[in-house]
Amino acid sequence: MTLSVLLGLLLLQAPAAPPEHFFIGRTEGSGTVHVIMSGRHGVRDRSVGRMEHGALLLDQVVEEEGKPARRRSWRLVRSGPRGISGTISDARGAVTGEVAGNVLRLGYRSAEGPWVAQVITLHPGGRSATNRMTFSRFGVTVATVETTIRRVD
Asked: How far apart are CA 35 and CA 32, in angstroms?
């Protein structure tokens, strides 16, 4: 076996960085919001993240078409090998979730009331991710958000 083949095999087996590390530094997202019986409109966000004492701290500005820009602050920490817990400034109560490979799943109640199920899937190469949020009331989906997030630095 040549050295280059051996190095290639080692790189394939090397564990990927945890999905939450994707948010360290600057990221930008863009996509669409679909609200039942209201239609679709655009959404963009800019975020700056850092790790501090084992927690991901994320400061975010969300610009949703037709609404004033709003700030969100996230604080997420690992709670076991796969668990995630924390807070988001526009969530009512705790945020809980899990990490499975390149996927980060979060669940929380939004300040406006609906339950939010959020799935962030990192793409190969670690420079972009897909974000899908589903908002539901009484088990019925009332809105979805689908964005692509890209690392800026």
From this structure: 10
In a domain, 106, yes or no: yes
**pLDDT for res 30:** 98
Report how many helices (DSSP H) and strands (DSSP E) the chain contains, helices first: 1, 10
pLDDT in tens, 17-33: 788 889 999 999 999 99
46: amino acid identity, one letter: R
CA distance 45 to 43: 7
Count of structural domains within the chain: 1
Dihedral, CA atoms, 61, 65, 67, 70, nearest 10 degrees?
Answer: -10
The whole-angstrom separation of Cα 6 and Cα 82 is 30
Which residues lie below 8 Å from residue 132, measured CB to CB, with a gap of 6+?
118, 119, 121, 144, 145, 146
Distance between CA atoms of 149 and 31, rounded to whole angstroms? 9
11 assigned to some structural domain: no
Q: Residue 58: name the closest of 87, 30, 31 by CA.
A: 87
